[in-house]
């Protein structure tokens, strides 16, 4: 005969009356939670707790009905007498369960104002009550919503140390959790270290599983980006504890392995000199790669941890590549279509770091068909995943070899990227602009999918964005698009941007934007000689603007591009060369010629660019070269070059020799 | 350039890199992305004199890794209806990433020295290269850059075009005027086919420079 159980934990009837029974039971539980009879209340508390443990749906359902305030009241109403201990334990446990891995639950618990009451449980004479309180508080401190803990206040520090000193593993674990989640600044790190927190934490390394894990998490927080703290830690008992952490990367529990790896990643990123042993680096990478396969949160955290470890470090990227990292990650991405967003983000960021510097890695992408995975990810609903996929594409497309082979120049790749230019998330927009900047460099053919999808117009729009980074990125993409472009392609841009508009870009308030605008202009006036005419539109507005910007004493990077614009224009006809001279020697003078300043710059590329302009101006094949040479000499420019015959930069030295050779042909002597 | 090749069974040698403590070579304006060069390759053999017109374009350069790449276009190739374009990758001899010793592509040390010594600009360096591989050389201040260029694939024709790209070039670049000379090495082809290129200014009166920036 089928029966129903009173616990209702496994009710699975699908009839309307059964669901009606469910909501009746839930409403019933609320009235029992408020009962004055402690036995009834206790039973109700146990019921709720048993239903919600590990069950997110039930948590949400009870939350919506107001269970948390009801339980908070039950906790608040219970006094500290022995007979109320069970109520304290069960209500603390239920609240802890609501807060466990469930942000809405944490919010509700904090909103119910029960946090101080939970703290008071830690001083209860009954060990079970203390335990329940500590566990519950640990759940809250796993969340970013946990109250801020002011370590700088002495009584807070005393309380923290009383927790760390406790024999109760949940209480000492709580102390470590508070540190792990609340310690944020280097001042707090210093204060904690000076108070002796490292010595307390390392004791927990030898404790229970839960204490070890709490300790590893909090160590990572205290040591992060703080070389002094790392030095203190490593110095404790001559490195014994660093060895212990390293040993824990081989522990049988995945979470312990993960947390010890993350701790080592923090130490490595802060003070890499403690990791001279290649084996440790390889071991760390291998362990993180294995953990990528863990189905739980450890796998998510391992992915992000790996990307943090190898970021910017070519030697570690190489080790990871040799350990088959790319294939491992690609296999996970290909076989599991239901990955959590955090893990997806971590995996794509790891791939991005792997191919940030290594050409072999970028070439693997093509052979392993990673592109298709990335294109799919561009359509993901989560902004972080889309941004990570774009960053990955950006780094993979640093391969000139693959750009040249046209691997990225297809509708299939380009369309989703162009669509993402309109993404509401600014981090996605920045990331997609970075990817497009590289991908538009299609050496392979004059046909460009990007242009066919209306990309130029979109970039021109973005070059007028309120955000200077967006303006800069858009101009960089245009610059790259116009690299060695034919007249037809240049015309597509010029027809949409008039001289006035372009002059505004060159005069942008932000130097990096000016730099990219000038670099774009440099490319526009390269190539076929007729393209130089663009700078003369609207009475030479653009060329005048370039001259004006150069006279303002700009930063070196902007000046380099400006001088190359002049170099390129000066490689044209007589008229073009004379127009450049007009910019170098305008009618209203008085200030020192900017070329003299540039020739004395510390930046060798700027000295080089300036000399190239001179080379082109006095190129012997042109009729006016002699007169221009006279003018340059009397302005002190040729004499300045004579002082630079031993320039520290070989390229500059060689170019100066060319100029002086030309000079000699005009009858000038060294 | 692509040539007909008979199989060879010489085993590959270890690529002789010798990192040492060197820094990368300084940039040279005329050996940069976007720079174009034009000239000829002498493909004469015992049967006849022949030269192909050749255009080269640099597409990328990474001095930190001693790497560069680009395309090579051969015109008036008898076996082909159209110009034949290949993509090549280069190694820059900087003493940090690469040395004068190839260590692969069936080129022995003797082959290396035989080819490098055909460049007049190599003679001041020859003694030191022969004695200790050139470890002490200060290539940072030398106005010539030595490279090896290896074609990787055909861009516009199929591999069944009757041509192959099994060999590589020993290359010398002059920093002062951007001229390039090279010798093609392939054990199965006519030896010392010479490549001679000059910078191209596309009808301009002077030098013009394009650039890109990879993110």
UniProtKB/TrEMBL annotation, chain A:
Superkingdom of the organism of origin: Eukaryota
Primary location recorded for the protein, binned into one broad class: cytoplasm
Renumbered residue ranges of the record's region Disordered: 1-29
Keywords associated with the record: Cytoplasm, Nucleus, Repeat
Signal peptide coordinates: none
Compositional bias (Low complexity): 1-19
A family per Pfam: Arm
UniProt subcellular location: Cytoplasm; Nucleus
Protein name: Armadillo repeat-containing protein 8 isoform X1
Gene expressing this chain: LOC104778043
From TrEMBL, chain B:
Annotated region (Disordered), positions in chain: 1-44
Signal sequence range: none
Compositionally biased tracts (Polar residues): 7-27
Organism superkingdom: Eukaryota
One Pfam family matching this protein: Vac_ImportDeg
Family: Belongs to the GID4/VID24 family.
Record-given protein name: Glucose-induced degradation protein 4 homolog
